[in-house]
Amino acid sequence: MSLREAIESGKFVVTCEVAPPKGVNMEHVTAEAELLRGRVDGINVTDLQAACMRVSSLATCVLLKQMELEPILQMVCRDRNRLALQSELLSAYALGIRNVLCLTGDHVVLGDHVEAKPVFDLDSVSLLQAAQGLMEGHDLAGNELEGEPPDLFLGAIVTPGADPIEPQIYKLHNKVRAGARFIQTQAVYDIDTFARFAERVSDIEVPILAGIVLLKSAGMARYMNANVAGVNVPEPLIKEMAEAGRKDKAAKAEGKKGGNVVKASIDIAARLIRELKPLCQGVHIMPLGWGHHVPAVLEAGEL
Amino acid sequence: MIASELKPIDEVLGFLEGEEKVFVVACDGCSAGCEVSDPERTSAMVAELEKNGKSVTGTARVEMTCNQGLVALMLMQQMAGVREADGILVMSCGVGVQTVAAAVEKPAHPATNSIYVGGGAGLWRSEPRCAECGNCMLDYTGGICPYTACSKSLLYGSCGGPNEGKCEVDPEVECGWMRIYERLARLGRADRLKEMPPLRNHRNMLSAGERRRTSVWALELVPREVLEEEARSSAAT
Question: Is the ipTM above a cut-off of 0.90?
């Protein structure tokens, strides 16, 4: 079943992201994707995430397509102008890719090439407009495409915990008007905040997939609270991770196997999934290097 | 020096929709030199506004609209007209629109597009204000320029980056789009963000030949031409 069919069927949709390598060994990313076979409805492939140079999302998506998986091409506006972005949309379609998630992208100063020129000729909204235009048979300059236009399935993102939330909601409406057919969100840890957001956007007719980022430690949670916009890990979850960390440390001192941190991380993610289920149409899992734990998360989350 | 050209009158009238009383600020600096805001063009603009049913509550000529202190002083001298107005039409470069917007809690509308001439910043220099992009969006964005105030020059609202109102690029810097949102909200105009203005036309940043026929350009070009002519004639003799 394609992502579009899964979403249009009205079922609870599950997507998960994988990250291309910084280097040419593709075994790790394809193995992570293989673990997701039959378990998710789409696999996002990040596009130079965190502004770090690596293998492209498109190349990795094509590999996943060859494996008969369902890739979602992520595209950011930081590195290409409107010619290159539109060309890549056409190229992706020509290579069998159907799903595209349109993002603005982190600024280059957050990445590993801080001296690079940031482009941002388009942004998330205008990239959606460009893709929608191609689907209607013309490019941004109004020139007609030859032959059948591409039939893409477009997505966008939102930060449900942003403060203030109003600018996010204005932009979300514009993204939907520009052609987004599904929405994936920034990491959610606070169910009440998400519930309030869901209430505010109940008039949005496209499905919203709540973002789940696996916590790897109490320190990571604190770091995100301090540095990642719109992400707030509640104190009890941080305590749970810290306690698991202490147990693992003690076990290690006795020469025993730990595993408490991983278990706590999976428990928390699974709990979030179960609590979010009545509030949204799906979840989007971002394992950040812990892809091998995703099957356990899905199982514990009853997906 | 910042070069500018008048926006089409229909675009200006579009900005002023729903505003019956308009105060006009005209710059006597660069944009007057570009024959955009000189007394003659300013009177023509006032007549055009009145012809289209607007009531002009006053006109202020400011020597350099990019000088924030001077703008505040000139507007104070005409406070009655400013207070009475629903909005302010600013005939200057993009910097001037922003000084007026920063001085008065009323919508400030640009009457011009500022055209790229290689980076004149105006007198309000504490941070970049106008990129001379030729697509002036200051009406849509409440008098704060997204091209210069946003690290990514985004046109359709903030990215996911700002944390507690600060930019992801530099936590010392306020998110430009958050400033835009907050100002629009204060003016009761946040719903403007539902609109999606046309994409930026980067071609407007090029200085086309015909734009070089303004008097400011002439002042810069003529002496060189005279010098070249002199060089030629002295070589001939």
Answer: no
